[in-house]
Amino acid sequence: AQRVTQPEKLLSVFKGAPVELKCNYSYSGSPELFWYVQYSRQRLQLLLRHISRESIKGFTADLNKGETSFHLKKPFAQEEDSAMYYCALRAYNTDKLIFGTGTRLQVFP
Amino acid sequence: NAGVTQTPKFQVLKTGQSMTLQCAQDMNHNSMYWYRQDPGMGLRLIYYSASEGTTDKGEVPNGYNVSRLNKREFSLRLESAAPSQTSVYFCASRKQGDTEAFFGQGTRLTVV
Questions:
Q1: Which residue of B has its CA nearest to A5?
Q2: Would you call A71 an interface residue with chain B, using a CB distance cutoff of 8 Å?
Q3: Interval B54-77: pLDDT, tens
Q4: Tens digits of per-residue pLDDT, B18-42?
Q5: Radius of gyration (Cα) for chain A, nearest Å?
Q6: Which of B41, B101, B105 sits opposite A97 (nearest CB)?
Q7: Hey, is the C-beta of A43 within 8 angstroms of any chain B C-beta?
Q8: Rounded to whole angstroms, how far apart are CA atoms A43 and B102?
Q9: Nearest-angstrom CA–CA distance, A13 and B38
Q10: What distances in angstroms separate CA B75 from CA A99, B5, B71, B110, one per listed residue?
Q11: For residue A6, which residues of chain B lie inside 8 Å, CB to CB?
Q12: SS3 of A2, please?
């Protein structure tokens, strides 16, 4: 069965500090991993996907198959990064898309 | 191009009442999803549909039914609402072969 775990409900940092939001998954096959973000009063939207190996808004995430992790990182947090972040998994070649419990990131000035 | 539209935005039901949450997308997407969002529980998949006429159970399907009558619309029905179904419900859609899912603005449902 597919499962996504985000161990932190809340992460609070000061502006300029590094940020790491943890995500672990369990799935025996080939997963596609994503990070979605929900800013206050906005719709949930895709932040980045592992297959793109891209950096969006300074965030990066590397898929580590050995540790079954897909942690989201940013070297210097900004106040506008404050939001709810969800890690998500889709089994390759299926339509089932599941999410973790989410981590609220608060960036203080 | 409205994207994913959910109706209603807010609803209060009494225990035992029934209602249907509507979702429509105008992006010609094949896959559609219903999730519920609860504090501390994140987003949990209720049902999903890979294409018109097909539906599959997600993580928490009990107490819900869905209908995918055409490509655009995917409705979620609560036959006999319970207070445990108080939640924010999100609909999403995704183009086959693409990885990004697009979300609606949510429906806040309260069952008293």
A1: B42
A2: no
A3: 999 999 999 999 999 899 999 999
A4: 999 999 999 999 999 999 999 888 9
A5: 13
A6: B101
A7: yes
A8: 9
A9: 24
A10: 21, 11, 11, 18
A11: 42
A12: coil
Determine whether the interchain pair B59/A9 forms a contact, defined as Cβ–Cβ distance below 8 Å: no
Res B1: pLDDT: 66
Alpha-carbon distance of B87 to B64, in angstroms, equals 13
In chain A, what residues touch B42 (CB-CB under 8 Å)? 6, 86, 99-102
Q: Considering CB atoms only, which of B31, B92, B99 is closest to A32?
A: B99
Cα–Cα distance for residue pair A30/A65, rounded to 1 Å? 9
Q: How far apart are CA B45 and CA B63, in angstroms?
A: 13
Contact at 8 Å (CB) between B82 and B13? no
By the 8 A CB rule, do A102 and A22 touch?
A: no
